[in-house]
Amino acid sequence: MVFERSSQQAFPAMSALLFTASAALTIAWCNSMVAMGTICDATQ
């Protein structure tokens, strides 16, 4: 019973962690592309 409860809590936590890491990597990648000038800067 304890294992089921902890695994049910771990899944949303891991999903949130994976989402946050993916978003951070995407933002960093986009910023590096803008800095290299390979894509248009959306702020201009």
Query: What is the CA-CA span between the terminal residues?
Result: 56 Å
Helix segment count? 1
Profile the largest sheet: none
Alpha-beta classification: mainly alpha
Beta-strand percent range: under 5%
Number of strands: 0
Q: What's the overall average pLDDT, rounded?
A: 81
Helices and strands, with pairings:
Blueprint: H1 2-36
Tell me about this structure.
With 44 residues, this protein is mainly alpha-helical. The protein has one helix at 2-36. The longest helix has 35 residues, at 2-36. The radius of gyration is 18 Å and the shape is rod-shaped. The model has no long low-confidence stretch (mean pLDDT 81).
Labels describing this entry:
mainly alpha; 44 residues; single chain; 1 helix
What would you say about this model in short?
With 44 residues, the chain is an all-alpha fold.
